[in-house]
Amino acid sequence: MYRSHPKTVDGNEACAYVAHKSNEVIAIYPITPASPMGEAADLWSAQGSKNIWGSVPRVVEMQSEGGAAGAVHGSLQAGALTTTFTASQGLLLMIPSMYKIAGELTPTVFHVASRAVAAQALSIFGDHSDVMAVRATGFALLASGSVQEVLDFSLIAQVATLKGAVPIVHFFDGFRTSHEINKISYFDDAVIDQLIEPKDIERFRHRALSPDRPVIRGTSQNPDVFFQARETVNPYYDTFPGIVQQTMNRFAELTGRQYRLFEYVGSVDAARVIVLMGSGAQVVEETVEDMMEGGEKVGVVKVRLFRPFAGGDLIKALPPSVRAIAVLDRTKEPGAGGEPLYKDVVAALVEDQAGLAPHFATMPRVVAGRFGLGSKEFTPGMVSGVFGELKQPRPRNHFTVGIIDDVQQRSLPWDPAFRTRKNREMRQCLFYGLGSDGTVSANKNAIKIIGENTDLQVQGYFVYDSKKAGAVTVSHLRFGQSPIRSSYLIADGDANFIACHQDVFLDRYDMLDMARDGAVFLLNTRVPLDRVWDSLPAKMQRQLVDKNMTFYCIDAYGIAERHRMGDRINTIMQVCFFAINALLPLAEATAAVKKAVLETYGRKGRAIVRQNMGAIDDALREMYRIETGALTSEKVVRPPVPEYAPEFVRKVTGPMIAGRGDLIPVSFLPADGAYPVGTAAYEKRNLAMEVPRVDYDLCTHCGKCALVCPHGVIRSKAFPAELAESAPAGFMHAQIKGKDYPAGIHISYQVAPEDCTACKLCVDICPIRDKSVASRKAINMVAREPTWEEDKASWDFFAQLPDSDRRDIKVDTLKGAMLMQPLFEFSGACSGCGETPYIKLASQLFGDRMLVANATGCSSIYGGNLPTTPW
Ligand code: SF4
Ligand code: SF4
Q1: Residue 45: its pLDDT value, please?
Q2: Structural domains in the chain?
Q3: Does position 450 have pLDDT exceeding 70, yes or no?
Q4: Residue 471 above 80 pLDDT?
Q5: Residues contacting residue 846 through CB under 8 Å, at least 6 positions apart
């Protein structure tokens, strides 16, 4: 047996490692969440990293997934071992070539980070609807459920396809497995070398098109032979499950990890069993182990090879004691009598029952359920709900679990408070950060340090919101003594440690709901020490006291500023995490963080390294424990949308913004995917610590600041001066300049302070400078306090002023065009985006007489990603 070594990686990296080591050509086209595999392979080839035969794989990026599949087909026919990576619609674009590749019995593996296929809406998240759409192509389908399995099955698939000549789609759940970091047992090149036998490669090469052995492949066949020719492949599919199992056995001899086509875990005399595939199987396994400890007779069948479906092996895997089976599919086939895995299981049971020696005295009752579409959470509580339903004399069929279906009442109830023993034993840590503050990269680094320097098992998963500018990221890190199979998020009452890296989140998220009794809360804030406690919302103070929590704070931005690190607070917060959680000795942890700093910033110069080292030392000195005590605060967590918002926005959009979208029932959502527009105006994100202010003594009313703002945050309106008589204090306006506008017409350049991202583009573009103070412009960034409330009142007043009649305005001038109402506002595009000003301008020029066709990409995300849309 070969020795393996622990490595802390995510699913994409584990897969790309094997694919790169065992292929000669890799044709790629990026698509979330599979892109990191192509990127890794591309990088390794660029660095000259070789496959096991000593050559550098050629990585070619095509013009689409259709092109990538075509390139794979051609390359395979020429005799080069070839692979690709994809997901979702990308896989669908490959379908025509997949039929050809399989039809010609061409060995290859397509690695798929499986993802929802766009239906009523696009979703970049995981489910099996893409791989189910290719189950008729003739490709085998092999499912990995964990990062470890991704590594192992990537190799098993490569070996089996070469032996059996059936191409394989090897898939694992997009994001949940592709992006989960876990500590796994890594094998090295020797295992790959041992498993891929030269005779299999020789056979593959021998079937390639070659002038030395001329044949024609890809003929056109008529009704006389096409049918018979189609049947010729049957023996290959009949023997393929056996080949995969033999490969799994051989793999076990080399690594000690034994897999089966259908792997049963549970009581030997189980009465109730769940059958499913993918990462959900890990959750069921964890729950089954827990329920068995409580004396329940339950089990799970983890389906590894879905195509060809070896029904006999499935039946053999089930204990004969089974009375009720729930088959869970992570896909939806509208209008079908059941989803694909359910139908195959039913067919296998019926065929076995009709045979000469049935496995069961009485055929078990079988029901179908759907779960986890678009990465919907699937938790032990839900698994327990399914097992509970199987106890009923007539369990519900065609149910859903994980949502509230108040239309057809198909959803099963579940207990959100259900926890497994394993879950309670792990140390669980949550981090709330901004996309731009380095929180995620610091956590990835921390988890690798712990994974590689301790005996602890580790798991890291990262949740990003849909915005690009000011996106909140929540990092979920777990540490424990035994392998972590919890393929679900840290939830209410679970976390031992919560870090809030941005104090603007304090009144936005109920983050301490997640804390367990005795947990630690770490806050990065610029509020002076003696006022930190009072700055918390009332609910947070109460939770800190009621849950006996320990509370630390640090001014990481102050330290970063002192060390000229801008807003990069990642290393500072990382050191605080190590100091509080003591997962490894602090000196060791600090040394590891410093080593990582050297590796990351070493090439950027000594100054940056010195700054980071200084900040690390200061972090340890300047983290303070805050006494929790009297409940002094009356601050409330502000509602996600204002009271005056329309009903749909309050009922649907608001809960989504607040992170409670999982609880929105089916009846609240439009069946055809049509949502109200202009909802971004209700989402006040309050991101900016500084906002721009116009100096009307200098301003020439050119309108450039309003033109360039990527978020439509700075606006101009022209109005009769008397309308401003009722304006709140602080509302700024002036007689409009230019001969086109009569006396008495005033103009205001007003900023929506709660929507500004502080990108400073408006200040940069302003052409007017104060002659006596060169650094001063006609628009300047100022601290949001102390005029914050005044500024908000000014915006509210401005918003209700009438828009100009376009017939009275010269819309072909910049100043005039900027007086028109933009119909694209407050988008979540990146801070400083160069595209959105043009979209906004087009909406101003054409008004509501414009139709937009928007291809998928950046503009479809900042333009149409829920919860809110800027159009
Ligand atoms: S700072 Fe950026 S987001 Fe804010 S008003 Fe200026 S251009 Fe717009
Ligand atoms: S860019 Fe400067 S001068 Fe032009 S409108 Fe804006 S603040 Fe005034």
Answers
A1: 98
A2: 5-209+218-255 (3.40.50.970), 262-401 (3.40.50.920), 426-626 (3.40.920.10), 682-864 (3.30.70.20)
A3: yes
A4: no
A5: none
